[in-house]
Amino acid sequence: MRKILAFETSCDDTAVAIVDEAGAIWGEAIYSQVKEYALFGGVVPELGSRAHIEQILPLTKKVLKQAKLSVRDIHAIAATFAPGLIGPLLVGANFAKGLAQALGLPLIAVHHIAGHVLAGYLEADFPKGPFLALIASGGHSAIYSCDHNFSMRLIGTTLDDAAGEAFDKIGRALGLGYPAGKKIDELAKRGCKDRFVFPIAMRNEQHYNFSFSGLKTKALECIRAQTLLDDQCVADLCAGVQEAICQALSERIIKAALQLNIKSVVIGGGVAANSRLRAMLKECSATHDLNLYLPAPQYCTDNAVMIAKAAQAKLKSGLLSDFSTDVQAYLPIEDQDLLNKIFHKY
Ligand code: KG4
Ligand code: ZN
Fold it and tell me: For the whole prediction, is pTM greater than 0.85?
């Protein structure tokens, strides 16, 4: 059973995991830097790089110990090489290169979005044939049409803010700290979704793009207009904002699946951990007879298991990387030629 040791350091989580070719997780660990950014209201890349440097070796030792394996039992080393914050990416990618070089193992450069799309790869209910993937995170909101070779074609994207970014910016205005998506999800459970109703952009248009900046502006204006922002008002605002964001995401992916006649839908990225979005998608996919794959919430937010799974898919196809592969802050996953040129040695 070939095992891959994988690293994810593209943003503010240092994550390490070992996954074998049957999809079994031998060990996983994650260190979140979130507390370090409370003061700043967002990620500080330089602090992030330093924290990744401090955490990556102890986490790797912890994961090997958890798996009861030595580095000699590992068959390939993988890491996120793009997109993301350059400093943080460099830490994971160079650690992976060093380890692979020292152990004489193959190196596999993984695209972060491929990780989110393939978080459920090798699980029994993960789609085998063509499927659509909705990836909604702090940096991305997009729909991809994926085939069985996992090539991904972008069919819709946000024209401005990402869904997670909208959650985070509105949450900041509500004093919920950073990142705010999970807190909004929790508070919305006590709120009334119909007290504040927010607009859903481009609802009836023919394309599959999103826009969240109008909703965000309306929510910020609404927050400023409140004379009494008590706990119930905050909960009601959270419920209203969450309803509109989730409705926009789920309407668009279901419409795309029906119009393109694709029967399977995969959801990923931090926002896919949202309980309302998950409930809405389960209901809509049952109504329209679609197969829905939702990763467990801890594999929606950034983690290294998803990077190891995407690396297993690449290893199976022989898509190994050269040691000269460089990290990229921006790299569209739909540009297969560019991706092959940068990431793959064959
Ligand atoms: O995928 P991810 O961990 O990192 C990126 O690649 O961006 O996504 C983080 C984003 C943040 O914006 C966070 O607020 C949001 O996912 N998020 C959520 C929830 N959990 C995380 N948004 C809504 N509901 C949640 N339960
Ligand atoms: Zn992510």
Answer: yes
